[in-house]
Amino acid sequence: MNLVQKAEHWGDTHHTMWLDVIRIALGVFIFIKGISFIGDTGPLQELMGAHFKYVPVFIIHYVAFAHLVGGILIACGLVTRMAVAFQLPVLFGAVFFVNITHGFDAINSELWLSILVLFLLIFYFIYGSGPLSVDEYMKTHIKHET
């Protein structure tokens, strides 16, 4: 077993229910953040244009799509690790390119929120979806016929 398989196995065998509640809340929060990006793209375009001259439209569409679809998938616990993998570049960008320009101060709550969400995403990337998830339901209730 390589390191990733060991981490996945450990995460699948050491999961508690309250971690699923946090995963569901994280997914709902990310989905709501995606809705807010779609509702008000002006500040996001301005912010992206300051850092990336030629790709702000692609980035805005990627962020919105990743948040909307990824948030639903994370909340449901369906292909959680893949959904988290699509979120990670967005959050790395939010922490290291966008929010750091505002500085590391206690007033910049968006930075601390982004760091918390990034930490949770990394945690669930390793830990997996858990027992209250569509993935677990499919593993236990749907048999593969060959």
From TrEMBL:
- This protein's name: Uncharacterized membrane protein YphA, DoxX/SURF4 family
Q: Which InterPro entries match?
A: DoxX, DoxX-like_oxidoreductase
| Primary location group | membrane
Membrane-spanning regions, if any? 21-39, 59-79, 86-105, 111-134
Question: What is one term from the GO cellular component aspect held by the record?
Answer: plasma membrane
Keyword Isomerase in the entry? The reply is no
Q: Which organism is it from?
A: Solitalea koreensis
Q: Which Pfam families match?
A: DoxX (PF07681)
What are the protein's UniProt keywords?
Cell membrane, Membrane, Transmembrane, Transmembrane helix
Membrane topology of this protein: Multi-pass membrane protein
Family named by the database record: Belongs to the DoxX family.
Cell compartment(s), UniProt: Cell membrane
